[in-house]
Specification:
By secondary structure, this protein is α/β, with parallel strands linked by helices. The chain is built from 9 helices and 7 strands; from the N terminus they run E-H-E-H-E-H-E-H-E-H-H-H-H-H-E-E.
């Protein structure tokens, strides 16, 4: 039975979603503040984190950042904030998917099922891959999409150097650069998730503030 951690301070919503998701054969854990989220993740194996941005004590953005550093748990973030700049901020923090509030039960369920299918497929691929002694070769053999592989290979060729989002957007994605285009950030989020599922740190591709992304050199 897949396990879900629902992190929201709205007790009524938590009760409702716990009953709904339990009826769909999910094991549901509830956290009403950020500290409880981290406590549960440290003690229990969680398949998906459903995370409200405005959860108290530790807000959703900080939680997502901490989760990405310590766990490979996919994050479905939801919020009443749906403007483009906010959504970009959510993905930069580490969200794998975003769902605006209010949302329908069916839409939430479809998002959960989609994440679980993707994670299951990735874990199966990792299980049957044979690692080599070459760090970069192992990274390049992960089950990336063609676009993700192009991004990784470009960063790897320029390892140790910060590559701007504009350069990646234009040279790799073949798209005009727009400041609020979150397409590249979503690809980076997916790449990092696949790395952690394979046992690598997400910091292999680090974010360089005000500059872009960098492939870290590993000895």
């Amino acid at each position: 039975m897949p396990s879900i951690l629902l992190a929201d301070s709205n007790l009524q919503l938590c009760d409702y979603l716990e009953n709904f998701l339990s009826g769909e054969s999910y094991h549901v854990y509830i956290a009403n503040d950020g500290e409880k989220v981290m406590e549960i993740l440290s003690e229990v194996s969680i398949d998906i984190l459903l995370l409200d941005v405005m959860i108290p004590k530790i807000n959703g953005l900080k939680i997502a950042q901490r989760v990405c550093k310590r766990f490979s748990t996919p994050i479905l973030m939801f919020s009443s904030r749906s403007d483009e700049a906010s959504v970009i901020e959510f993905f930069k923090a580490g969200a794998d998917q975003y769902l605006p509030k209010p949302f329908k039960d069916t839409e939430l369920l479809m998002r959960i099922q989609s994440l679980l299918r993707r994670v299951s497929l990735e874990r199966t691929r990792y299980k049957y891959s044979t690692p080599s002694d070459d760090f970069e070769e192992n990274i390049s053999r992960l089950p990336f999409t063609n676009t993700e592989a192009d991004i990784v290979n470009y960063l790897m060729k320029n390892k140790g150097k910060a590559i701007s989002k504009k350069e990646l957007q234009v040279s790799v994605l073949r798209r005009d650069f727009y400041e609020f285009d979150r397409n590249l950030d979503m690809h980076i989020s997916n790449i990092r998730r696949k790395m952690t599922l394979s046992g690598y740190s997400k910091s292999v591709i680090s974010t360089v503030r005000s500059e872009g992304y960098r492939f870290e050199i590993k000895q």
